[in-house]
Amino acid sequence: MARIIICLYLNMTRKAIVFDLDGTLIDSIPDVCAAVNETLVFYKRAPVCSAKLSKMIGLGAQIMLQKAFAEDTAARTPVLIEEAVQRYLDFYKAKPTDRTIIYPGVVKVLEAYAREGIPMGICTNKPAVMTKIILEALGLSKFFCGIAAGDNVTHPKPDGRHIKLTLERMGEIAASAIMVGDSEADLMAAHDAGVPCVAVAYGYSQSDKDLSKAAAIIYTFKQLPAAITKILEVRK
């Protein structure tokens, strides 16, 4: 009964939900790390562990790789980062979801929102080609009516224009939206776009302190409906 009430309340207020992808809906670290390390080894660099890599994710493939290459302080040969990004994408495309998982509770919550007609979109700094491949491989693409990836925009997260483009593709506006993400970049983009943000603490953020400016913090995805309902009650 509680779930039905939450969904109906959301439907009445016509709230659209914009989701980050990595660290929010899916744990992609194992596959991202494998592709990054294949790239590093190709350029004769030392690989990085997944714990370190998780701190590099969130601002797009180019920045992630710049940080990964910087870890090998003994390296002497410079690398053209644009070339390395393409090499990384080639490795990633070969094995995009071998070890990637959907976080517990995600599918059930998305299914409930879909039944109630809640518009949902994806705002990610991940490249568009990988976003499409992964969403389709995991059976998640059917839930989203608008997607804006990192290379679809001139100003990606933490710039709020990234969220606004996502909403535009969804046929929605910022006044009708809530953002859900795991990083400071998500929070900054949401604030810039004038959208409240629910932060997920199970993702790739370093600590709750990084998420302290969120409208709500959740520790499992199944807590999302209640968190959004509370935000809507405060904003009435």
Across the major sheet, the strand order is 5-4-1-6-7-8
Distance between the termini: 22 Å
Task: Tell me the helix content.
Answer: 40-55%
Strand content: 5-15%
Q: Quick one: how many beta strands?
A: 8
What is the N-to-C succession of helices and strands? Answer: HEEHHHHEHEHEHEHEEH
Poorly predicted tracts of residues: 1-12
Top CATH class of the largest domain: Alpha Beta
Number of helices: 10
What kind of sheet is the major sheet? 6 strands, parallel
How many structural domains does the protein architecture include?
2
Structural class: alpha/beta
CATH superfamily grouping of the largest domain: HAD superfamily/HAD-like
Shape: globular
The Cα radius of gyration reads 18 Å
Q: Write down the CATH topology of the largest domain.
A: Rossmann fold
How would you characterize this protein structure?
- By secondary structure, the chain is α/β, with parallel strands linked by helices.
- It has 2 domains: about 160 residues, HAD superfamily/HAD-like (Rossmann fold); about 70 residues, DNA polymerase, domain 1 (Orthogonal Bundle), CATH 1.10.150.
- About 45% of the residues lie in helices and about 10% in strands.
- The chain is built from 10 helices and 8 strands.
- The strands form 2 sheets. The protein has a 6-stranded parallel beta sheet, sandwiched between helices.
- Strand 6, helix 9 and strand 7 form a beta-alpha-beta unit.
- Helix 2 crosses helix 5, helix 4 crosses helix 5 and helix 8 crosses helix 9.
- The longest helix has 14 residues.
